[in-house]
Structures are given as structure tokens and as C-alpha cells.
Amino acid sequence: MTAIVLAAGKSKRMGASVPKVLLPIAGRPLMSYVLESARAAGAGRVIVVVGTQKEQVMAAFEKDGVEFVLQAGQHGTADAVLACRDRLGDNEECVVLCGDAPLIRPATIQRLCGVRQSAGADVAVFTARLADPAGYGRVVRAGGDYVERIVEKRDATPEVLTIHEVNSGAYSFRWGRARPALERIRPSPVSGEYYLTDIVRELRAEGGQAVAVLADDPDEMLGANTPEELALLERGLAARREPSAG
Predict the structure, then answer these.
(1) In this predicted structure, what is the pLDDT of residue 200?
(2) Using CB atoms within 10 A as the burial measure, which of 43, 52, 53, 155 is most buried?
(3) CATH domain 2-223 topology
(4) Residue 39 and residue 242: Cα distance in Å, rounded?
(5) What are the tens digits of pLDDT across the range 202-241?
(6) 15 alpha carbon, distance to own chain's centre
(7) CB burial string 98-130: b at 16+ within 10 A, e below
(8) Are the C-beta atoms of 181 and 94 separated by less than 8 Å?
(9) How far apart are CA 53 and CA 8, in angstroms?
(10) Cβ contacts of residue 197 below 8 Å, gap of 6+?
(11) Do residues 94 and 209 touch, judged by C-beta distance below 8 A?
(12) Any idea which residues carry the catalytic annotation?
């Protein structure tokens, strides 16, 4: 398995001078927990996609045995994954992870890949049901565990916004099947970005299937966009370290 970790985002809303994935929780950078989980899940390769603040990220993790790929410009998550195209073989099993979502467990990564393979699906999407889905992209199911499409909040109709199942940003696919679909994705007419979520639509358009893998613990998908969310992540890590009662 190859883990593609997205780390090109900025920390605008944090008011921090460092990239978001370097923000510290429990004395370590956010992304260090993601890399740790990916390796514990069995990732033989870890590719980190970096962006405008690449020097800081590369310096922080240069001794961690990861590969770095540059995303030239902030053009969205599909563009970030496609930046890896020269590093990946068609038969490579890939998992995409968000570098600022440190609570994802190794077992969840394994389940994401295993469900896709056992279902014979082309892509698996890690999802969660939230009481307040807020700004997350919504998951529109096609029946059972299958996904019809994922709709970003800014592009969603009022009907779609009533859905409480959301996209986490983590995916599993085989590169040779995903790459052509990624290359067909067009930019959003609203934001101009190339959304990785659109891989579901592109694969289904040619007869492929997407399957949802619903989180047992919705906190596993949480990222850090505000200082309050960063504090929530720190509390989540601390809770995991507390010994069980009894």
C-alpha cells in the first residue's frame, strides 16, 4: 500500500506562520500522527504532497523516510493527487489521507482498503454521520453501501444539505483505475478547484462503483481549520492515552 498524504494547504484561519500540518498537538506536528498511522496500517511508501510552504514541511519530515511531491499552485485536492502520477504504478494500491487529520487509526485505514477490495469497488470513501455537518461535503448514496456522488457544500442544493453523512477526505483506490478518472475531472464552476470528490462521479460515469466506509468514531475524520478545532484534536489524542477505567 502507498499512502498519499495531502499537506499543501495553508493555515490561513489559524493565523499561524507555519503550514497547518506542522501545528503542534501534544508536542508533535499534526502530520506526524498521520504518518505514524499510515505506516502502522502497512503503507510501504508514504508520499507527501507539499505546496507553497514546502521548505518547512520538508525540513520537518526529511528524516522520516517519506517522499515529497510538489503541487504547483493551489488547484484543489484532485490536482494534488495527480501531482503524484510520475511516482505511481498502475497496480499500486493507494490510500489518500489528510495531513491535518491526526486521529485516523491504522485499523480504519486497513478497513478502508479492505472494504473496497472485498466489494470489488473502484474507490472507497471514508465517511461519517455528523449531527452538525456544517461545511463538509455531503455523501449521496446510491443504495446500500454504494455512493452516487459527493457534493461540496458550496455546490450543494438545499435538499443535499439535509444529508448528515459527510466526506472525510480519505480514499482508497488502485492507481491505474483512478488516474484516468482524475484526469477527466474539470474545475468547479464555483471555486475553480479540481475536487477529488469528483472521482466518484467520473468512475460511475464509465460503469465503476464507489463504496462508503462509515466511521465507527466520527472524530477520526476531524481536521484542524481553527484554533478551537486544534484544541479539540488535542483533547481527542489525550483521551486515547488515558487508561481505561477498571
Answers:
(1) 95
(2) 43
(3) Spore Coat Polysaccharide Biosynthesis Protein SpsA; Chain A (3.90.550)
(4) 23
(5) 999 999 999 999 999 999 998 888 888 888 899 888 887 7
(6) 23
(7) bbbbbbbbeebbbbbbebbeebebbbbbbbbee
(8) no
(9) 7
(10) 77, 137, 149, 150, 151, 152, 167
(11) no
(12) 13
Q: How far apart are the C-alpha atoms of 73 and 183, rounded to whole Å?
A: 17
Assessment of whether the complete model's pTM goes beyond 0.85: yes
Q: Which three cell numbers stand for residue 204?
A: 460511475
The CA distance from 31 to 11, in Å, is 13
pLDDT in tens, 84-136: 999 999 999 999 999 999 999 999 999 999 999 999 999 999 999 999 998 88
DSSP-derived secondary structure for 199-228: HHHHHHHTT--EEEEE-SSGGGG---SSHH
Cα separation of 187 and 185, whole Å? 7
84 neighbors 7 (Cβ within 8 angstroms): no
Q: For residues 121 and 147, give the distance between their C-alpha atoms in angstroms, rounded to a whole number.
A: 10
What sign results for the dihedral spanned by CA atoms 115, 116, 117, 119? positive
